[in-house]
Amino acid sequence: MRLKTLLLGLLFCQPLLANGIVEHTAIQALTVAKHSDTGRTLEHGGMLVSTQTPYGRIVRYVEPSAPNRDVTSVTVIEKKMLTKNDVLVGSYHLHLCFSNYYHAYFSVQDVLTAFFSGVPEFMLDECTGDIHEFDPLVDKVRGPGGIDAHISGPKGERLSRHLPAGRIIGNIGETETPREGP
Predict the structure, then answer these.
(1) How far apart (Å, rounded) are the C-alpha atoms in residues 23 and 21?
(2) Hey, how many other C-beta atoms are within 10 angstroms of the C-beta on 181?
(3) What's the average model confidence in pLDDT over 164-181?
(4) Domains in the chain, please, with CATH?
(5) Please, where are the H alpha helices in 49-134?
(6) Residue 70's CB: how many other CB atoms inside 10 A?
(7) CA distance between the termini of the chain
(8) What distance in Å separates the CA atoms of residue 74 and residue 84, rounded to the nearest whole number?
């Protein structure tokens, strides 16, 4: 009877454990990206992928390509890299520590990526070391901690947009002093 109760408990706890695995993998991916040769100079990002193996479910991170030399933009999702057994469970990217940059907030593009992919977006704020999560199934764009920002539009026009902060799910224990940005 105790074994049956334990097994039923594990069955119902699986979604909670799975979410922890995704967050842990995001933190690991962001830490590795920050410590790469260009982790302080180019934005890095990628996919969090779940795969069912004969030994159980694994979650891993994949950086689709080398940073594209654009300091504030990176491709995070490249679905053609997924195999038939892979399931996209999240995406991640760095926000470099610039003084004239909204490094603690998700950009409009970040939010759109989360909504269109249907999976959480994780972001490392290199200034504070905080790791933020924006999950389109949980978080609101106008949720707590966001900011009304003035950003440049595609034609250089000045736009007012609300940028969400998401939820802080961890910290890598490293901070940086803001520097001049692009």
Answers:
(1) 6
(2) 13
(3) 92
(4) 2-135 (3.40.140)
(5) 108-117
(6) 11
(7) 63
(8) 25
